[in-house]
Amino acid sequence: MKLLTYLLWGAIAAAAAFCLGGVALIRGEHINSIWLVLAAACTYITAYRFYGRFIAARVMALDDRRATPGERLRNGHDFEPTNKWILLGHHFAAIAGPGPLVGPVLAAQFGYLPGTLWIIIGAVLGGAVQDFVILFASMRRDGKSLGKMAREEIGKVGGFIALVTVLIIMVILLAVVGLVVVNALKGSAWGTFTIAATMPIAIFMGLYLRYWRPGKVLECSAIGFLLVLAGIFGGRSVAASASLAPVFTLSAMALAIGIIVYGFLASALPVWLLLAPRDYLSTFVKLGVVLMLAIGILIVRPELQLPAFTRFVDGTGPIFAGKIFPFCFITIACGAVSGFHSLISSGTTPKMIAKEWHAVPVGYGSMLMESFVAIMAMIAACVLQPGVYFAVNSPAGIVGATPAAAVATISNWGFPVTTATMAQLASDVGEKTLFFRTGGAPSLALGMAHIFARTSGGAVIGFWYHFAIMFEALFILTIIDAGTRVGRFMLQDLLSHVAPPLGRMMWMPGVIVTSAMVVAAWGYFLIQGVRDPLGGINSLWPLFGISNQLLATIALCVATTILLKMHGARYAWITFAPLVWLVTVTFTAGWQKILSPLPALGFLAQADKFAAGAADAATATLIFNARLDAAICGLLMVLVAVILADSARVWVGILRGTADAHVREAPFVPSRLQAEEL
Amino acid sequence: MNVLRRFARLVLATLREISDENAYQRHLAAHGRQHSGPEWRRFSEERLRAKYARAKCC
Fold first, then answer.
1. Each residue of A226-269: pLDDT tens digit?
2. Which of A387, A321, A336, A323 lies closest to A540 in space, CA to CA?
3. Cα–chain-centroid distance for residue A29?
4. pLDDT at position A678, please?
5. Which residue among A431, A520, B29, B42 has the highest number of C-beta atoms inside a 10 angstrom radius?
6. For chain A, the helix, strand and coil percentages under 3-state DSSP, each to the nearest 5
7. How many A/B residue pairs have CB atoms within 8 Å?
8. Residue A22 Cα, gap to closest chain B Cα (Å)
9. Among A86, A96, A478, whose Cβ lies nearest the Cβ of B13?
10. Residues of chain B whose C-beta is under 8 A from some C-beta in A?
11. C-alpha to C-alpha distances, A209 to A142, B20, B53, nearest whole angstrom
12. Is there a contact between B14 and A218 if contact means CB atoms under 8 Å apart?
């Protein structure tokens, strides 16, 4: 029996190595997406079984006899021991956002290989380890947050910096995802109508849930989903109507203003009316679509059209500037390592773990699942013809302002595409044009629509395209309204020290003022992105990626400190190695984004280039924006450098025996949970 | 067939957890209360206030 087990694991590991080798080495022919699926799946299974369990058994010494916070502090609300598979689903739903979908689509400008390898290797050795260790640390500390652990394990500076970094990331994140939605919906009556329809649907759901059928969330979400589907079908009629189509055909600026107003209302309105029902609906749609995409890829097994590497590995890419190192890693972000996950792993989840060993599937396993979502997004982007992929994702400022100029530029790069092909594609999906739709969402929707349509016999590609757009926009808007609300709470908390009434969560003037401040902050960056001649994504997505990876750096500093206190230097490499990598990547990227002499890459060089042009108000704004982006990037780097220095001080002290190496875990209490309770 | 049934039960339980329906049942049990409109609104307000005080993942 033991021999059979060895043989089985040997076969899975060999399959992982064979498929990874195939993905990396096959050249000169189109590669089937199944290679990527198998390479990822077999690597994840092997890593989960060996690396995940090694960390659990040797490093963490997980012990099911020890009562978890969920059992010890059980209160029927936050603290509740929960079945591990249910918690896995819950945790995965919480960590899965637009990052692993959009990042790989953008990174595909380098070809399928660099992004795919980083998604797989980064998740196994970095992202999943970070999520798992932070979950473990929080679980052993009564479910404490990352900020509290940073304060206790490293010092007060660490806790404060974690809070400020999260606030900055929120502002950049909300702006960049807002820009993704704007670019997906601009000039699209069908898409705009569908997304606009989700707002009255969410309000209907809120009223239904509160007054007509209280507590029936699943029933209400099912009704909401049917109404959203009706909205997609209705959108086609609206787009075809001579009187209604102009009403819903909006410019990028009009959409940006609409999203800003929406973010303000959603933050200030009662949460049950708009935010919560939309959140329930978008979570279910997200899980369902991810599952559909996985099944679709397995059924269709499409061939990848993009090559392993494109010419843009030299840093001259049209979607974002910069070489593979460090920008592939920054752009993929959440698909491999996400600092934001450490907030979830030290939030609700540790309070719901029933047995310590459940942290392996929940902490390590769910990040592998998220990484698999990123692989599927990479496949969806790479099944498009390269010329189409670049025509959709490139800004007019790079490829030329007209379709003819754009196809000429892109064809000259070696990715042939014609205006006729693009016109036919746009007509097939019910759009007027698909040129210059930067941000990743439309090309992801196109790829997904191809896969879904082929699953259903090649029919209704227009429906599937708008279904995919609806799916992306729905949960991005949920992030915008929830994020604005959270930002408002953080700001109210901070401002309460100078003006105590602003800290009162129910005081309407305070709510309005702080909501407006948060919306103004991310709205400013959103407008900046809309006005950016390079499309906005070129500036904002790397800024988001850098800030996200810097948050991961803070989480890995906390994790390394805890491992050093537990075992000395013996196992610290587990988190220290990814930490060194992330510091190298993020600081290199940050440095280049600020100081590169290339205007397409460096913010300051870009400002200088604008300054050499016309001296009008619009140019002055562009110059200010480029310098502001440089300042934000610099601030993030300084904040993280401070926490790194503070951590290094603590680490040296621990290793020399001069610093407090006391492990601040909750005391051991024997578990009394019975198997049938789970 | 049993495996399928168990899997379906697990999926439904996960959906109930995500939708807060399980949390509501736990709330009723913990406080010894019966389901009613006002009770759901009380639970929901408290639950949602805590839920949306935390950052949402990207």
1. 999 999 999 999 999 999 999 999 999 999 999 999 999 887 78
2. A321
3. 32
4. 67
5. A431
6. 75, 0, 25
7. 122
8. 31
9. A86
10. 10, 13-24, 26-27, 29-31, 35-37, 39-41, 44-58
11. 33, 12, 21
12. no
* Residue A494 in this model has a pLDDT that exceeds 80: no
| A163: pLDDT strictly greater than 80 | no
Q: In this complex, is the C-beta atom of A90 within 8 Å of any C-beta atom belonging to chain B? A: yes
pTM of the model: 0.94
> Could you report how far apart the first and last alpha carbons of chain A are, in Å?
29
| Cα A44–Cα A50–Cα A51 angle in degrees, nearest 5 | 75
Tell me how crowded residue A570 is: count the other CB atoms within 10 A of its CB.
12
Contacts of B54 in chain A (CB under 8 A): 343, 347-348, 486
| Tens-place pLDDT, residues B38-53 | 999 999 988 888 888 7
Residues A326-362 pLDDT 10s = 999 999 999 999 998 998 899 889 999 999 999 999 9
Instruction: Report all structural domains of chain A as residue ranges with CATH numbers, in order of start.
Output: 2-187+250-656 (1.20.1740.10)
Question: Hey, are the CB atoms on B45 and A272 less than 8 Å from each other?
Answer: yes
How far A99 CA sits from the closest chain B CA (Å)? 5
The Cα–Cα gap between A174 and B48 comes to: 21
Question: What is the mean pLDDT of the segment spanning A40-47?
Answer: 97
Distance (Å) from the alpha carbon of B1 to chain A's nearest alpha carbon: 20
Q: Which two tokens stand for residue A623?
A: 């110059």
Distant-in-sequence, close-in-space partners of A505: CB < 8 Å, separation ≥ 6: A489, A492, A511, B49
**Residue A64 — pLDDT band, cuts 50, 70, 90?**
very high
What's the CA dihedral at A533, A534, A539, A540 to 10 degrees?
A: 80
